[in-house]
Write a structure and sequence with these properties.
This protein is α+β, with helices and mostly antiparallel strands and about 400 residues long. It is about 30% helix and about 20% strand. A hairpin with a 4-residue loop joins strand 11 and strand 12.
Length: about 400
């Protein structure tokens, strides 16, 4: 007799990705999007192009075009309510077809086996976990290349959220030692205005310092880390929940952002500096606008979340990215087979991918907010979801 599993049910929205960095393609399946959401390939393509940009990127972006194909779940420009299947072909697979063959392994160097794990990557930990002496079995899937599929998923979620006035953007807040003051929050207008700059930084003078940090790291054969902030506005109060630990939206946002390769820390609002301050300096006082019949705050140190629930203010989440692990100047490692010390294997790398990381962060936040939105408002079709949403807004105005 099978065991009975009691716990949080599978969310109304979920996705899976598949594919290796140098395999034929990346695939994503997104399930739970209501029927009737307008969606065209261009909506996804524009986000994929944003992911490919940014100062400090390496050679892989000169090879790939990341053309999206919608294989299922859309008809006549609208979602069907069935699972949405997305495919992104890897153009570089033409150079790796032997090393990534489905059946017979080639001999010698054509197999491109990796026995020298790279510090900071999943190479060694994954090889130990799966009992393989060829770390390529691990690194191909652990590669940040997989995030292209996530950006495609996030683009679909943005299309849903956009129908309800929810917008998402990001900006780079630090690269190396070039950092915006922790207490200074860039307004929405400046964040969206910096979209076409080299690093999508809201402060032009700071961006010039960031570029110098990248150039210095590249000249040393090194990489440099940084941070980005994702901002979502138009998010209604009431998403998420306080009843159980896994319903708190603050925790969900932290989880999805930490799932991005190289992200090592996440801050909601001014969470890190809040830990050094007194309560009277931290908590956002509450006011009421009688004309708009709405509660409001003049500060947003909580980042739009209190008790794991959205409070109607902008969602602000900052992610901290370590320097990329693959370096042109190889670090020391130990061969998985011979156990001798060597310089670690080197794949193509970037000096930084911080601007791309922000786009990936937007995608993951879009997914998390769409999941919470559908848990709150439900609906098998867009009109049904809209009726539920509109009814809740009436409830808020009548409060």
């Amino acid at each position: 007799m099978g065991a009975l599993c009691i716990g949080r049910p599978v969310g109304v929205l979920r996705f899976l990705t598949a594919g290796e960095s140098h395999g034929p393609a990346l695939v994503a399946i997104l399930d739970g999007v209501p029927a009737g959401v307008p969606l065209r390939p261009g909506d996804i393509q524009s986000q994929l192009r944003r992911r490919m940009g940014g100062y400090g990127r390496g050679g892989r972006m000169k090879i790939e075009t990341d053309e999206i194909r919608i294989l299922a779940g859309v008809r006549f420009g609208k979602t069907l309510g069935s699972p949405i299947a997305l495919l992104i072909e890897n153009r570089d697979f033409a150079n790796w077809s032997a090393a990534m063959a489905l059946e017979s392994a080639p001999r010698g160097e054509r197999a491109r086996r990796v026995t020298r794990p790279r510090p900071g990557h999943a190479d060694l930990a994954g090889a130990l976990k799966y009992g393989t002496h060829d770390a390529r079995d691990v690194l191909e899937r652990a590669s940040a290349r997989e995030t292209a599929a996530r950006v495609a998923v996030g683009a679909v979620c943005r299309s849903l959220l956009g129908r309800f006035g929810i917008e998402i953007a990001s900006h780079t807040t630090s690269v190396g030692r070039a950092a915006a003051p922790a207490t200074r929050e860039a307004p929405w207008s400046r964040i969206v205005a910096c979209e076409r700059t080299a690093l999508r930084c809201a402060d032009p003078r700071l961006e010039r310092r960031m570029i110098r940090e990248i150039d210095a790291a590249r000249a040393r054969g090194d990489s440099v880390g940084g941070s980005f902030q994702v901002v979502a506005r138009g998010v209604p109060a009431g998403l998420g929940g306080h009843r159980h630990w896994d319903l708190r939206l603050s925790g969900t946002l932290a989880r999805v952002l930490l799932s991005i390769p190289s992200v090592k820390g996440v801050e909601i609002g001014s969470g890190f500096s809040n830990a050094l301050a007194r309560g009277s300096e931290v908590h956002d006082e509450i006011f009421y606008d009688a004309r708009k019949r709405a509660f409001l705050r003049k500060t947003n140190r909580a980042g739009g979340l209190e008790g794991g629930i959205t409070n109607g203010e902008e969602i602000r989440a900052r992610a901290y990215v370590k320097p990329l692990s693959t370096l042109p100047r190889a670090l020391r490692s130990v061969d998985l087979v011979s156990k001798k010390s060597f310089g670690a294997a080197v794949e193509r790398t970037d000096a930084t991918a911080i601007a791309a990381a922000g786009v990936i962060g937007e995608a993951m936040v879009a997914y998390s907010l769409a999941e919470a939105f559908l848990e709150k408002f439900g609906g098998d079709s867009l009109p049904e979801t809209r009726r539920n949403f509109t009814g809740f807004l009436r409830q808020l105005r009548a409060f």
